[in-house]
Write a structure and sequence with these properties.
Elements (H helix, E strand, L loop, with lengths): L5 E2 L15 E2 L3 H5 L1 H12 L2 E6 L2 E6 L2 H9 L5 E2 L6 H4 L10 H4 L9 H19 L4 H22 L5 E5 L1 H5 L1 H11 L8 H11 L4 H21 L5 H8 L5 H32 L4 H6 L3 H11 L10 E2 L3 E3 L2 E3 L5 E3 L1 H4 L3 H4 L26 H18 E6 L21 E6 L23 H13 L1
Parallel strand pairs: 2-3, 4-10
Antiparallel strand pairs: 1-8, 3-4, 5-7, 6-12, 8-9, 11-12
Helix pairs in contact: 6-7, 6-12, 7-9, 7-18, 7-19, 9-10, 9-13, 10-11, 11-13, 13-15, 13-18, 15-18
């Protein structure tokens, strides 16, 4: 592929980014008709457009070749380090900018070079026992995910007979991956249910988020310190085993990041996949009826990437993209969702006619590509499978174009997924409880108890 980004000409043909009147990103069209929103930006600006991200101007990259080129970063032009952000260094980013706490967490998402390689090495080795289906930890995790799904379905349908209504986002897609995160972190019953509840509250991004982040961070730091001293069959222990010089502070930051990546990203993917199946778009229903669940997840990721727009990158030198001069240190946001509507990717077919493609960008590419894509796909696949095994009929309780969406500059998902259901007379049996790979120091927290409390919180 020809390079899509070239060194910039000496003088920009337009004002600096901070002085451009940027297009608001969070508009009704962005939330309800994203394909048309991206198409409009592309028609007005080309492959890159200036947008206002909650009060901060940034360049939004819309073109598939350009997004892929930046992700791969074969020339080492792009930085993910926060100290590359010129406006922040100059004090021009509002201290109360809503995304700043997540950006300043200090995890591997915002690292480069040797430090990135070191942390990704820990992740790659640490995730392997849970993603390699020949390993006992992976088999045990899959069985646990199926049990969590069955517990959720049982609880949301109890007392209602064989038919009823449910919200499959709040009552299913969101709590299920948080249960998985709780298990991966190695939280035990002795800690009670508060860490899981704090994960839920943190992802809601309410006004008390700083206090919740501090409390959850302390709990995660405590469990990481325990796992460093006494390893178990959990993710922090696997990270410490893979990189012995990994510090508790580093592990804590990575595990907090995991709450967002697995808890939010995977929960969003579950909701999006179920919605795509029920709507019947992108050939998802055909894949599901043919038993190709993993392919259904893949097709849903094309049509509605959970991470519609990625966290910022910054060029190390001035570059030209399309008709714009991108100055060194300008924030650049890549949009997989927009790239998937680019004719360079779709071949001029409408978005709902795109055949399955492994060239999509929902999992990223290059140095910062998602290392947990197999785990997220497995969790989502099991969640969708258990749902359609337990229900003989599912249908949307609202027209597809009226499903309420989350208002987020990065995540693209549903706020609610109201459905009508009919329970199957003879559903497939739930997965049996696995034998632990090694004796655990403390028992895992009760899944039904945790789920019941989560659902009670939803009802309030």
């Amino acid at each position: 592929m020809e390079p899509q980004i070239t060194p910039a000409e000496p003088a920009p043909p337009h004002p600096p980014l901070a002085e451009i009147i940027a297009e608001p990103l969070l508009t009704r069209d962005y939330e309800t008709r994203p394909a048309l929103f991206y198409e409009g930006l592309r028609a007005r600006y080309g492959p890159v457009a200036p947008v206002d991200v909650m009060g901060v101007n940034a360049w939004l990259v819309l073109g598939y070749p350009q997004v892929l080129d930046i992700m791969r970063d074969t020339r080492g032009l792009w930085s993910k380090r926060m100290d590359s952000w010129r406006a922040r260094n100059e004090g021009r980013v509002p201290p109360d900018w809503p995304l700043l706490p997540a950006f300043e967490l200090g995890s591997s998402v915002f690292t480069d070079g040797k430090e990135l390689s070191r942390l990704r090495g820990a992740w790659s080795a640490g995730l392997k026992p849970f993603q390699d289906r020949t390993r006992p930890q992976a088999r045990a995790l899959e069985q646990a995910v199926a049990r969590y799904a069955d517990d959720l379905i049982t609880l949301i349908t109890e007392g209602g007979g064989r038919t009823g209504t449910a919200d499959l986002v709040a009552q299913y897609a969101r709590p299920l991956p948080l249960m998985v995160v709780n298990r991966l972190l190695g939280f035990s019953a002795a800690r009670g249910e508060e860490p899981l509840m704090d994960m839920w509250r943190l992802l809601d991004a309410g006004p008390d988020s700083p206090q919740i982040m501090a409390r959850l961070g302390a709990a995660v730091a405590e469990v990481c310190a325990q796992k460093q001293a006494a390893p178990g069959d959990d993710l922090p222990s696997a990270l410490f085993a893979a990189v012995p010089d990994l510090t508790v502070d580093e592990a804590t930051r990575e595990m907090i990041m995991m709450v967002g990546l697995i808890g939010d990203h995977t929960g969003t993917l579950i909701g999006n996949t179920v919605a795509e199946v029920l709507v019947g778009g992108s050939g998802v229903r055909a894949s599901l009826s043919a038993g190709l669940l993993a392919e259904a997840v893949n097709r849903a990721a094309i049509a509605a990437p959970p991470m519609a727009n990625l966290t910022f990158r910054w060029p190390r030198a001035d570059v030209r993209m399309g008709r714009f001069h991108i100055a060194a240190g300008d924030p650049v946001m890549l949009s997989p969702a927009a790239a998937h509507t680019d004719p360079a990717f779709t071949g001029d077919r409408p978005p709902d006619a795109i055949y399955s493609s492994r060239a999509h960008l929902a999992w990223g590419a290059g140095p910062h590509s998602c290392l947990g894509r197999d785990l997220a796909t497995t969790i989502t696949t099991i969640a969708v499978e258990r749902l359609f095994d337990r229900f003989s009929a599912l249908s949307l309780a609202l027209p597809a174009d009226r499903l309420p969406r989350r208002s987020s500059p990065m995540m693209r998902g549903l706020r609610e997924l109201p459905v009508r259901y009919e329970l199957a007379a003879d559903p497939a049996p739930p997965a049996p409880a696995p034998a632990p790979a090694r004796p655990a120091a403390e028992p895992e927290a009760s899944a039904p108890s945790l789920i019941r409390r989560l659902l009670q919180a939803v009802r309030r």
